[in-house]
Specification:
By secondary structure, this protein is mostly beta strands. The chain has a single domain, classed as Jelly Rolls (Sandwich), CATH 2.60.120.10. The chain is about 5% helix and about 45% strand. The chain has 1 helix and 27 strands. The strands form 6 sheets. Strands 2-23-20-25-18-15-14 form a 7-stranded antiparallel sheet, with no helix packed on it. It has a 7-stranded antiparallel sheet with strand order 3-4-5-12-7-10-13, with no helix packed on it. Strand 14 and strand 15 form a beta hairpin. The radius of gyration is 19 Å and the shape is globular.
Length: about 325
């Protein structure tokens, strides 16, 4: 997915200085951002209060939207470097195309994982004939320096491991490992992502890694995570230091649990690029505008997305939080 801001801020983040080394409960509000022709997303990372959770550096939640009489998601071809995109649906379909020649329709419960590496371009759209509702999340994972120039790749996983717990918990492991179950998706840093459903009346505890920092993104219902009741579209940052996570639900609920070892490197994120310096970003923008390096996305009905203008001010290093 693209960041379609016309004036995207330049963000420098990463490093361990500001990681909460103990459990916390910081509730972060999202910001509504237009995406394409008819989709509005709630942007939860980067946030005024936090820029990363492990290697997770970008989180958009969208829907559920009634798109029966709308074109739905329409994101033109756009570039990425230095990151992975994670596409996850609860309802609807999204058609992915990329400059490797991949063409894949994603459906609920399937993992779409794109590793941009040195350079890739892709588009995302609702198929011409699509379901009435569209609901999901799009996330980015920052690649560590030793892998950020790797060859781009696309992965589509339809069979993902599940974890079940007493009292109505069921979890699909999207990336990494949870309670002994491991996703087939490729990762480059210690991290995890899971889609967790809680049946009404659930009161349980989920084992977690004490060295990981975690956040919970509510998708539907009103899950109670470590004593905090979460409305859909909210993100609760949990810090590190837990060995288990208390979970409750009075109604059927679903949330995504994102976690990982705090990302040690400092990164620069601007528009759809993750680099290590302003020079990285400037070069990637120039290459996209000059139609080099990223390849072509074939089949999308419309022009590719032009890059915004770079900010006039130089980068100012900042930490993980503001």
């Amino acid at each position: 997915m693209s960041n379609l801001d016309l004036k995207p801020p330049t963000t420098v983040c990463g490093g361990r200085t500001d990681v909460a080394a103990q459990p916390v409960r910081d509730l972060l509000a999202g910001k509504d951002v237009p995406l394409g022709e008819s989709t509005v997303v709630r942007r939860l990372l980067p946030n005024l209060g936090r820029r990363m959770v492990g290697a997770w550096c970008f989180v958009d939640h969208y829907g559920p939207d009634d798109i029966a009489d709308e074109p739905g998601m329409q994101v033109p071809p756009h570039p990425h470097i230095g990151l992975q995109t994670v596409s996850w649906l609860h309802e609807g379909e999204v058609l992915h195309r990329d400059s490797l020649g991949s063409k894949q329709t994603l459906r609920p419960g399937q993992l779409g994982l794109m590793t941009s590496g040195r350079a890739i371009a892709h588009s995302e759209e609702s198929p011409r004939e699509h379901a009435r509702l569209l609901h999901g999340a799009q996330l980015w994972v920052a690649l560590p320096d030793e892998h950020r120039h790797t060859e781009p790749r696309w992965e589509h996983h339809t069979e993902l491991p599940r974890v079940t717990g007493g009292g109505g918990l069921s979890a699909t492991v999207i990336l990494g490992e949870l309670d002994g179950a491991r996703s087939p998706g490729t990762t480059f840093t210690p991290l995890m992502g899971a889609d967790i459903t809680l049946a009404a009346g659930t009161d349980t505890r989920l084992p977690v890694h004490p060295d990981f920092e975690y956040a919970a993104l509510t998708m539907s219902g009103e899950a109670e995570v470590d004593g905090v009741r979460l409305a859909p579209g909210s993100l609760l940052y949990l810090g590190c230091g837990r060995t288990e996570l208390p979970l409750r639900a009075d109604v059927d609920s679903a949330f995504m649990l994102l976690g990982g070892e705090p990302f040690e490197e400092r990164i620069v994120m601007w528009w759809n690029f993750v680099g290590r310096s302003q020079q990285d970003i400037e070069q990637a923008r120039a290459d996209w505008m000059n139609t080099t390096r990223f390849g072509e996305v074939h089949g999308y009905d419309g022009p590719r997305l032009p890059a915004p203008m770079l900010p006039s001010t130089p980068l100012k290093p900042r930490g993980r939080t503001r």
